[in-house]
Each structure stands twice: as structure tokens, then as C-alpha cells.
Amino acid sequence: MAMNEETSNLAGPTTLTADPFALFAAWLEDARASEANDPEAMALATVDARGRPSLRMVLLKGHGPEGFTFYTNFESRKAGELIASPEAALLFHWKSLRRQVRIEGPVTRVDEATADAYFASRARVSQIGAWASDQSRPLDARETFEGRIAQAEARFAGIDVPRPPHWSGFRLAPRAIEFWLDRPFRLHERRRYEMGEAAGWGAQMLFP
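-> C-alpha cells emitted (208 positions)
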């Protein structure tokens, strides 16, 4: 039976391009124009030593062919898992655009100069918070954390806040990037890019 006019009309945005990084950059710009909150928000999946997964939202702070960068307290659960098992997956879901991007690959720590430069660009309150928080550790009361914040504010009063030695960034070098584009009647478009050992990026359409 032939598809009717509605189901056959699939004109519009597409994932058909040879460069996954250019496509990601274009989609991110669209998200910045349409998402109400945090278009750079992405889910980060890691595993512990027993292979048990954990998932949380983090913010993308850099992207390109070299990888996708985010920052964290290196004493946190996610950092500990990434150091022990340096493979991760990312997911962007832009609901306003009805698009998703999945990214998989190995993770490495950014260099000190890159971490210093990003930390210096953060709001001072966020810099203070990086010193005050024992991220992922038990906290007996909110007042304890607020006291730690006050102590850090006093410690760095009148001077620039330096980057804590336990605070830095990770960069995920993509091995695979998959784009998902909503289509009417769940006839979605999926395109997966994978890095070959010698031939560079290859792409394959997937059934939705």
C-alpha cells in the first residue's frame, strides 16, 4: 500500500553531511536559539569498577574534532569512575528541536593551562564553590556547606580565586557520533558516524 501524502512528506532538516562536527555545531547553534535553558546540557554516562553505570547532567564547555570538553571536581564520583575506566558516552536532547546526539569514546584529562583558563572565566561565586564543595561526599547539613563557602570567601577576599588542584576538565575524543532527527509518524532519521582506523569518518543510516 502506498504511503499517503502526509507520511511521504519528509522534507526539512537532514543529517546528510560528511562532517559530523559541522553538523553538531549547526545543531548546537539552533539549540542556543530555541532551548529555554542550558542548550549545552548533556547527559554523561560512566561505569564503576564493577561495570555498574551511572548518569548525570553536565555542561559542554568546548567542542570540535579534538573532542567534547567538560569540567568537574576530580574527587567526585564521575571523575573517579572516568579515571578508573576512561570511556564515556554523552547524550544531548534538544526537546524544542526534537533532536538528539549520542557520542561515545575515550576520555582524557585536559592540560593545566586549558583548565586554568576556563576556571578563570567562571563567575567568582562558582570559583568559591569549587573550593567549598567536597563533591559527591556525604553532607550532614546545608549549613555546613554554607559555612565552608563563607570560609572560602574569607580566604580569598580581595584576590583572584586560584583553580583548586582537585578541579579540572575531561575531553571525550569521539569514536562514534549518532544524530537523531524527529520525523512525523515516528519515521525518524538516524545517522551514525564512526571513526575508522585508516579511512577517517564513515557514516551509516540506521533504521529508526
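The beta strands are 41-47, 53-59, 62-64, 67-73, 87-94, 99-109, 167-172, 176-181, 189-195, 201-206.
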